[in-house]
Amino acid sequence: MPSSTIRVSILGSGTCVPSLKRSSCSVLMQTGNAVLLFDSGPGTMRRLLETCTTIFDLTGILYSHLHPDHTGELVPLLFATKYPDETTRQQPLSIVAGRGFAHFFQKLEAVYGKWIMLAPEIFNIVELDNRARDAHRLGDVVVESAPVEHNEESIAFRVTNPAGCTVVYSGDTDTSENLVDLARDADLLICESSLPDEMRVPGHLTPSLAGEIATRAGVKKLVLTHFYPPCDQVDIARQCRKTYSGPLVLAEDLMQIEVSIEDRANIDQSR
User: Fold this and answer.
1) How far, in whole angstroms, is CA 267 from its chain's centroid?
2) pTM assigned to the model
3) How far, in Å, are 126, 170, 240 from residue 193 at the CA level?
4) Which domains does the chain have, with CATH numbers?
5) Taking a C-beta distance cutoff of 8 angstroms, is the pair 185, 218 a contact?
6) Is the bond leading into 147 cis (omega within 30 degrees of zero)?
7) Helix (H, G, I), strand (E, B), or coil: what is residue 79?
8) Distance separating the N- and C-terminal Cα atoms of the chain
9) H/E stretch holding 125
10) pLDDT tens column, 169-189
């Protein structure tokens, strides 16, 4: 993938609710040599294959938080990585998450043992601060994070490639000033929008709240995702338009979006 472009593939636009239409939460971002998976809810590995990507292509897995609809396929993915043996993976794999992930992973190792243990030369865990802004470099990609309002370990991510293209992934969150700051002037914000405005619950956003965050942050394009079934029964776009007037996309599984400097120029000229 050219380092001047970030290709985003929505692998799962749904939630914990079983659905033939929407897999659980997962997003793939590719730019240059970086192949980054954000969350891995149930169904992720199948969706990866449908985008012609294998688990061995991944250079990083980034977790917004530890709920099962975001981490459910971590164990199967690591187990599959060992087939036929660990040498099948030719490049290191980093897992990046908020503080507390290493302890979570130790508990998984206590249950599954060698079946999910990878050689240290090809596997490492990076914990980012879930109380303040933080950053980590994965190859030539800069990954920034900020705590958001959901779980104690919850963080959102901002990816910047060498060309300066930026994509922000909110994970699960309520209204969050940290997310507004992290998404400032981003080319693309992939934002959770769990339920219609009239069904708002603590810890999650609705279309109009997600739109308000996007407007305040001045993002170039907004993608709404993480839809519970009621979202398919109402006009989500219309609700979002109460607070956001820019380019808007409603996520569907296997949807692909490319972000480039040229796209940014075109959007700026149209305003």
Assistant:
1) 23
2) 0.95
3) 28, 10, 9
4) 5-263 (3.60.15.10)
5) yes
6) no
7) helix
8) 29
9) strand 123-128
10) 999 999 999 999 999 999 999
